[in-house]
Specification:
CATH architecture of the largest domain: Alpha-Beta Barrel
CATH topology of the largest domain: TIM Barrel
Largest sheet: 15 strands, mixed
Number of strands: 19
CATH class of the largest domain: Alpha Beta
Order of helices and strands: EHEEEHEEHEEHEEEEEEEEHEEE
Number of domains: 2
Length: 331
Amino acid sequence: MIQHTAPTFPPARLPGRGPGWYRGDPHVHSTRSDGELTPAELVAAARAAGLDFLAATEHNAPMAAGSWAGLGGDDLLVLLGEEVTTATGHWLALGLRPGRLADWTHRVGDPAFAEVLRGVRAEGGLCVAAHPHAPYPGGELMYPLESFDAVEVWNGQWSGDLPWQADNEASLAEWGRRLGADTLAGRPGWQPAVGSSDTHLPGRLGTPQTVVHAEELSAPAVLAALRAGRSWIAESAAVQLEFTAEAAGRSAAVGERLRTAGAPVELALRLSGVPDGSTVHFRTRRGRAHRAPADALLRWHTDAAESGFVRIEVRRPDGRPAALTNPVLLG
């Protein structure tokens, strides 16, 4: 682990559960579909892992009003959702009402797909492309990625003891290329990245986890933070990260846009809880722009015209990620 003096981070838990950083796992399964843990066991595991929220996403199964009743609380938010499991890929419908089921009988090219997405969004829900390059029949996502509100680039289900495999690398690379192409073309929209354990087995919850900056610990606030990309992904609760950009007297954090007025940009990364020998990669729309050994505080300078955005990958000595961020957009 990094042995340097750790920087001060925004507290993960604030009195009254107001604005702050909250850790969660937005893709989990219980015994109500094909998981091995009951809802009560998952909730206990979430608390033990230091999570603030989780999303129950059973395969093509509605969440009855009483399924998770009484299991959450002020310290743990339980979001209701569904893993919409079709013959041509899976996606997550997050923020569903109790008893609500998103239809899963569509296939790629079916007009009903767009109707289902609209229905989820009309209720304030979020549509997430799940494990786009999953290595099993039906798991590879054939729907256009641009159809979704966010993309799951780090999925922990099929990785055994290592929460990162080739399918995740492919998903991250595809997401990164699309992010670069969108900013080069001047398109204002971009899709945030999320990470989740896709837990089916004991001992996997929160590996990885998504850390969001939300106005409060509530379903609308957490979904809004995920939708806006005010988030980053960690391999565990041990990893702490703060990434900011400053220019012309202004500052921005992950998921925000910094108006630079042509001034130089200073990026600052505060980091702890990653293995010794890890490296930090500053990536822009032109690919990897800067690399440095992981340290408690790193700084790097760039400009908006050159970079377009900056995002962070923290890689372990063996190349696996310890953390990934959504971009700070520069303009």
